[in-house]
């Protein structure tokens, strides 16, 4: 294989993984949007709500961890890697959403209440770390 062929193949793989990763990030954002009152992008952009911002960014970071681990674990097998990335990313989104619902019931930390607060709340920090931890756990499980 020539250098040009190698570069073209690698660039195509990067573009494919980036597309799957972007789709997962968008899905993850809309799932967080569903779990919070109001339109999340408006709550972040217009209201400049730090709790909503922290929860959304931590969820997206966790999805990024899962996507990266899925790519790494594919070992260069593009088709398997793309399928694994899509499936494991969706599983990670579901698990994060369930964790938010469980925290609401078990610990009494409501995402809906948190995003109504204009100052950064301890519960938002706890849920943000939970997002990243679940992303890391899922990522390591993929590997």
From TrEMBL:
UniProt xrefs under Pfam families: DUF350
Keywords: Cell membrane, Membrane, Transmembrane, Transmembrane helix
Broad class of the protein's primary localization: membrane
Spans through the membrane: 12-32, 53-75, 81-103, 124-142
Domain of life (superkingdom): Bacteria
Membrane topology, record value: Multi-pass membrane protein
Localization terms from the record: Cell membrane
Database matches in InterPro entries: DUF350
Family statement: Belongs to the UPF0719 family.
Protein's name according to its UniProt entry: DUF350 domain-containing protein
């Amino acid at each position: 294989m020539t250098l040009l062929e190698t570069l073209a193949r690698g660039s195509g793989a990067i573009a494919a993984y980036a597309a799957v990763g972007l789709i997962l990030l968008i899905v993850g954002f809309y799932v967080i949007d569903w779990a919070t009152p109001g339109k999340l992008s408006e709550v972040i952009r217009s209201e400049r709500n730090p709790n909503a911002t922290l929860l959304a960014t931590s969820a997206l970071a966790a999805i990024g961890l899962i996507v990266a681990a899925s790519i790494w674990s594919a070992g260069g097998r593009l088709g398997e890697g793309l399928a694994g990335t899509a499936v494991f990313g969706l599983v990670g989104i579901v698990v994060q959403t369930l964790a938010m619902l469980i925290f609401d019931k078990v610990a009494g930390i409501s995402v809906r209440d948190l995003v109504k607060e204009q100052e950064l709340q301890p519960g938002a920090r706890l849920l943000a770390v939970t997002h990243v931890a679940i992303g890391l756990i899922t990522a390591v499980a993929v590997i």
